[in-house]
Amino acid sequence: MIRTHTRWVSWLFICLICLCKAPVYAQTADVQTVQPSNENDAALYSLAAKLPSAKLNQMESLVTEISQVPHPKTREILSLVLNGDLYYIKSNRLLVAAIKVGKEYELTDVLHDSELASVKKSKIRKVRTNNRLRGLIRSAIAVLDLNSPNKDVRLQAVKQLLDNPSTMGLDAITLRLDKEEDPEVSELMNVVLSLNQLKTGEHQAKLVAVSDLESSLQPEVRNTMANILRELPQSQRNAQEAELAAALNEVIKNIDAKRSRYGFIENVFFGLSLGSVLLLAAIGLAITFGVMGVINMAHGEMIMLGAYTTYVIQITFPSLIEYSLLMAIPAAFLVSGFVGVLIERGVIRFLKGRPLETLLATFGVSLILQQLVRTVFSPLNRQVQAPEWMTGSWVINPVFSLTYNRLYIIIFSLVVFFTLMLILKKSSLGLHVRAVSQNRDMARALSIKSDWVDAATFGLGSGIAGVAGVVLSQLTNVGPNLGQAYIIDSFLVVVFGGVGNLWGTLVAAMSLGTINKFLEPITGSVLANIIVLVGLVLFIQKRPKGLFPQKGRSCLLYTSPSPRDKRQS
Hints:
Elements: H1 2-28, H2 39-48, H3 56-67, H4 72-83, E1 86-89, E2 95-101, E3 104-109, E4 115-119, E5 124-126, H5 131-145, H6 151-163, H7 167-177, H8 183-200, H9 203-212, H10 219-231, H11 239-292, H12 299-316, H13 321-346, H14 355-377, E6 393-397, E7 400-403, H15 404-426, H16 428-438, H17 440-445, H18 450-472, H19 484-497, H20 502-523, H21 525-542, H22 563-568
Antiparallel strand pairs: 1-2, 1-5, 2-3, 3-4, 6-7
């Protein structure tokens, strides 16, 4: 009996042990048992198995050994450690990549790429790391990326080593330099080696490095030279120190001069981009103001309607983001142009010859349109997504780059301008518009339907304002008050350039945009606008008709009596 009782107790004890181990077996049951297929696999698996139990003082040597194993998984493991996403399961020390989803973590076996069951945070632990180790890992990853077939990856790797050079990275660059075929990557590699030579070389080597780095505009080059110059004795320098200091001063002076030139060009570029926006916003106003003499305070709302048209197209066709702007340009032109014709036919044509009443009426129309947009879209600002081809920058050198969205805006505004010039010069509509703008009574005498010309002109100007809204949607958020920010600047551009003169509008827009961008770094944006406004007031005192006054006009505003006035008389 005692022997039988003992046997049952033993079996019960074994069952309890199995039950306790069951969760671990269930957890790792889907892990594929993969044996190392070659020496690299065996070496990586052996080193990776040491990561869970390694202490921080052992991690540096372990990471260095892992980085030297030529294996596709090497970079992935180092990146996981760098980003803090490498964990191990406490029960069996299995390395996993963990992503938090809700209250649990989704696990992936790092070495075998197999998905595991989700677990709670208490079941896993993060592989140890610190800031010093992260710097080492960044250098190790950069060394691995030096042999990438992708030029951008190699360039980024060299830039990483330029910021944080290491002995391992410098050795890798030296070995790779003769094999590198891309001139941009090769040049940056030489900069890294020359900087290291400047820091650690002998006197003659330092002078050679200073001479080699004279043409480089990398910020690290200038900063390193300034630091070395600062560390040299300020007085009682020996001959070598004096020679090195003179060479460093000369090169730093040349680098600063180049940076200043490129800074000037960059300010011009940003000024032209701002001027392009002002040109698109003001060119339609120049047409309506020049032909009809109407002070249209609802012009900003035409810009707003164009921006909202772009937003509607994007939410209607979410799969066509890359083509949304190309679709929005004609749509915004038609929507804003149609609304402009309605305003002219419904309001403005009854107020001809009465500029004050026209101003008040169009101001009321602008308030109605703003409230309509608030009712339909809500008062909150909307964001329009930029297509991929308008994102990023064209990097010309380390201190000068052109953003694609502003570059495209400059080109597009010039295309719109010259297209409008072609329409006004070569089409019958343009002939009638020019005739009415120069002498309305004579144009009527020649059987030109001035009312039809007014409607078409107002619709054309409003349509171009809608196109300006498409452009502005790529620079700022779309909201009900979008157009109000540009209506005053548009009037300033029209008056400064000369009422009704498109070339004057072009020159005025580009000039005001460039002046504003040069003043902003010195005075701030608000004071820069005030200075520009005061300057325009003083200029108009001397030249009331602007830079390029319209020829053949007897007065600024059209003041002949309206049909209603004639009937009343």
